[in-house]
Amino acid sequence: MNDPLSLFPPTRAAALDRIRDFAPHTGKTYAEGRNFYASAVEGGAVSALSPYLRCGMISQVELLRAVLEHHSEKEAGKFIAEVFWRTYWQGWLAMRPGVWGDYQTDLKRLFNEVQTQSGLRQRWEAACLGQTGIAPFDHWAQELAQTGYLHNHARMWFASIWVHTLGLPWQLGADFFLRHLLDGCPASNTLSWKWVAGIQTIGKPYLATSENIEKFTQGQFADVQGLARKPADLPASPHPDPAPLWEAGQPDTHLRSALVLHEDDLNPLHVLEGMTPLIANVALMATARQTPWQIAPQVAEFRANALEDARARLAKEIGLGAEVVASAQALADWATAHGAEQLVTADAPVGPTKDILDAYDSLPDAPPLVRVRSEMDAAAWPHATKGFFKFRDHIPALIKELV
Ligand SMILES: Cc1cc2nc3c(=O)[nH]c(=O)nc-3n(C[C@H](O)[C@H](O)[C@H](O)COP(=O)(O)OP(=O)(O)OC[C@H]3O[C@@H](n4cnc5c(N)ncnc54)[C@H](O)[C@@H]3O)c2cc1C
């Protein structure tokens, strides 16, 4: 039962069941219980919906509608705010895509350093395998590898120990998460790791303490020895100014159009609205590009199964299709072979899928690609200019307009 695909069946039907079961618990029970650690097997007070939200198998709007059937906005305020953290991080990164590029560059350098510096390699391997001797940390490293999920508080403690106690580069920790998490999200993951390291909210690192771990694991891990008492002193550069978002558009419904499905939105109904019948569809899978190392099999398997579920579910709207590509050139070749005059797709946030879509745009002679942004992203992202607390002021209006 610990296997990731039993814990998180990769279908929209399973996600909808989970929403139905969880929505009544998004009020006081969530607010009071969310910080208490529980594994994916135990469940606890959190929803474990993140793998489904990550792949767009369910939308944030659908989730919020279900929540508001059971609670007022005020009662479910904590849960609603958490759901919007994800959108906030995506919007923040969308306006500063260079932060993702810098992380990629750092990872390439660290990939080489791990191969060439045996001291770093040993410390990194021990951390990834859960062999550091710090009991809760080792437990969570193994739990993540086995289940593809970690509770939020465990992610915070784990990242803190990785950076401040073990003194390992935060980028290697972010990569370890992105390789194993079913919900691995370039924005939430990269920026949360930076936040723990004290270089996102600059000068405010997150330091795990034994008392806090004991309290919120309800004694499962007590008297944890050897944790850093002072945060690592990491160089922080000022954040880039927010830049305008890249262009999203509306397809020309007169053109012979083909759909590009991808793992950032596996229920792209907003793309299909008003479209004349599509000539074909293709899946663009960027999973392997999340890391210079190998992605964990559970992540590849979850995404591949979720894609199959989407294709079966949408067969009436998009027709049958089985082809999968993984690069811009392969996508262009596929479009030409199918006589597509236009490709349409759901806009993808900053991350590997968008990297491929951007590379496609600069290919000569490839048919135009139109990215359709969801109403929520279009309305919410531009507010992520500063910190979350300023963004939060816009949540009531976003809910009124879109939920
Ligand atoms: C170091 C670190 C790395 C993280 N990496 C990721 C990641 O790769 N992908 C990811 O989706 N989340 C990430 N998070 C945020 C958070 O831990 C997860 O979203 C949450 O644990 C998912 O579990 P859940 O669905 O049970 O959450 P719930 O508490 O039930 O929340 C519901 C939804 O709200 C969103 N959410 C909740 N908390 C946060 C948060 N702090 N930041 C952003 N969104 C949130 C998620 O979409 C989540 O599914 C990270 C947090 C930390 C500290």
Produce a short descriptive summary.
The protein contains 21 helices and five strands. The protein is mostly helical.
Fold topology:
Layout: H1 4-7, H2 12-22, H3 28-33, H4 50-54, H5 60-70, H6 77-94, H7 98-116, H8 118-129, H9 135-147, H10 152-165, H11 170-180, H12 186-197, H13 210-216, E1 257-262, H14 269-272, E2 280-284, H15 297-313, H16 315-318, E3 324-325, H17 328-337, E4 342-346, H18 352-361, E5 369-372, H19 375-380, H20 388-392, H21 395-402
Parallel strand pairs: 1-2, 1-4, 2-3, 4-5
Helix pairs in contact: 6-12, 7-8, 9-10, 10-12, 11-12, 17-18
The structure holds flavin-adenine dinucleotide.
Residues 34, 46-50, 53-54, 82-83, 85-86, 89, 151-152, 155-156, 159, 177, 181, 183-185, 188-189, 192-193, 196 line the site of flavin-adenine dinucleotide.
How would you describe the overall organization of this protein?
- By secondary structure, the protein is mainly α.
- 51% of the residues lie in helices and 5% in strands.
- The chain is built from 21 helices and five strands.
- A five-stranded parallel sheet has the order 3-2-1-4-5.
- Helix 7 (98-116) packs across helix 8.
- The chain is globular and about 65 Å long.
- The protein binds flavin-adenine dinucleotide.
- Residues 34, 46-50, 53-54, 82-83, 85-86, 89, 151-152, 155-156, 159, 177, 181, 183-185, 188-189, 192-193, 196 line the site of flavin-adenine dinucleotide.
